């Protein structure tokens, strides 16, 4: 017998795992990969704590749960629809089931988990449309493996304690700026709340950098960057903002396709022609962007591939909790269409 009582924490430390993972093995709640179970069992035997572990391993749970936490379920105008399909396919192949929890405003403000979310029954978390940094911080301290895709604007400059995989934003916007300049643009505005989320903030950085490297000046008078809660889908509101500008810019770079489509509709009510009078670009590569009049130049997000990568990161985190956190950007690709002039 060992000279001191062996605890789950001792086993966790010896395996390089979290106590939560070892606890799942012993209490039979949640799912742990068989390779991890075998590691814990072997280490428990070496420490003189073999018999209890063997009893638990005799009937391991066959299915575990991955929790999707979100403030807004993705719509068709969001890359998350493709993300969820591929992510779910990947985790189901490993025996996990996806449970979806939509976080209410009250839960967000009080930093509360949704009802029926039982941490002991959750093997991992995937966060999408979670833009509150304090709520994300709370989730990071649950000691449950987690991967985020997009997050708050502050997240991209913070050392968060989880994996993070998202689309590449800066280079995509800079490529758009270069093409607009070649098409004759000298005054380029930006549309979208750059404080809304991490991807919007990076697209704003790309816009600023793109102007600088092409010798253009930033002028906030040509930007519409009100809070995301503003009525960006209201043509009258958009036109009121445009009418306050000292002149019409040569082009608008929009933070996503939804904003670009709303802007096109508003500009048409002003009897402006696109791209002859003004050029418009979006971001996301949604299906709808191909059917605007004119078809919208955009930057396509690889939602399916991001979903696969997020699943791989999370599954690896479940297997090896001590592995260094990874921040990954997946290349986005510009799609040149008729909403900008030919070069």
Quickly list its features:
about 350 residues; alpha/beta; 434 Repressor (Amino-terminal Domain); Rossmann fold; 3-stranded parallel beta sheet; about 40% helix
* Lateral strand order in the biggest sheet: 2-1-3-4-5-10
Q: Globular, elongated, flat, extended or rod-shaped: what is the shape?
A: elongated
Annotated CATH architecture of the domain at 170-301: 3-Layer(aba) Sandwich
Can you give the mean pLDDT?
Answer: 88
Order of helices and strands: HHHHEHEHEHEEHEHHEHEEHEE
CATH superfamily of the domain at 170-301: Response regulator
Helix content: 25-40%
Description of the structure:
By secondary structure, the chain is of the alpha/beta class. Among the domains are: 8-57, Orthogonal Bundle (434 Repressor (Amino-terminal Domain)), CATH 1.10.260; 170-301, Response regulator (Rossmann fold), CATH 3.40.50.2300. The protein has 12 helices and 11 strands. Strands 2-1-3-4-5-10 form a 6-stranded parallel β-sheet, with helices on one face. The chain starts with 7 loop residues before the first helix and ends in an 8-residue tail after the last strand. Keywords: DNA-binding. It comes from Aristaeella hokkaidonensis. This is LacI family DNA-binding transcriptional regulator.
């Amino acid at each position: 017998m060992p000279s001191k009582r062996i605890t789950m924490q001792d086993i966790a430390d010896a395996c390089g795992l979290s106590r939560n993972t070892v606890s799942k093995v012993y209490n039979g709640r949640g799912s742990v990969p068989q390779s991890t179970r075998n590691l814990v069992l072997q280490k428990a035997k070496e420490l003189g704590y073999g018999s209890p572990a063997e009893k638990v391993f005799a009937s391991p749970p066959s299915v575990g749960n991955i929790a999707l936490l979100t403030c807004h379920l993705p719509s068709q105008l969001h890359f998350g629809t493709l993300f969820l399909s591929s992510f779910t396919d990947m985790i189901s192949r490993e025996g996990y089931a996806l449970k979806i929890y939509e976080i209410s405003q009250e839960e967000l403000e009080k930093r509360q988990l949704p009802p029926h979310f039982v941490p002991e029954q959750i093997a991992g978390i995937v966060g999408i449309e979670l833009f509150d940094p304090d709520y994300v911080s709370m989730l990071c301290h649950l000691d449950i493996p987690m991967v985020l895709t997009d997050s708050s604007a502050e997240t991209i400059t913070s050392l968060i304690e989880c994996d993070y995989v998202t689309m590449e934003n800066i280079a995509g916007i800079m490529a758009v700026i270069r093409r607009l300049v070649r098409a004759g643009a000298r005054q380029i505005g930006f549309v979208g709340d750059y404080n809304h989320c991490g991807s919007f903030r990076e697209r704003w950085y790309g816009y600023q950098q793109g102007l600088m490297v092409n010798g253009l000046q930033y002028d906030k008078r040509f930007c519409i960057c009100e809070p995301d809660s503003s009525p960006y889908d209201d043509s009258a509101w958009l036109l009121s903002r445009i009418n306050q500008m000292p002149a019409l810019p040569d082009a608008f770079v929009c933070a996503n396709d939804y904003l670009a489509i709303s802007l096109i509709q508003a500009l048409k009510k002003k009897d402006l022609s696109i791209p002859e009078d003004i050029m418009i670009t979006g971001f996301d590569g949604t299906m709808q962007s191909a059917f605007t009049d004119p078809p919208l130049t955009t930057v396509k997000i690889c939602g399916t591939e991001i979903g696969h990568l997020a699943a791989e990161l999370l599954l690896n985190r479940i297997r090896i909790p001590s592995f260094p956190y990874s921040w990954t950007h997946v290349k986005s690709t510009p799609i040149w269409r008729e909403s900008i002039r030919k070069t």
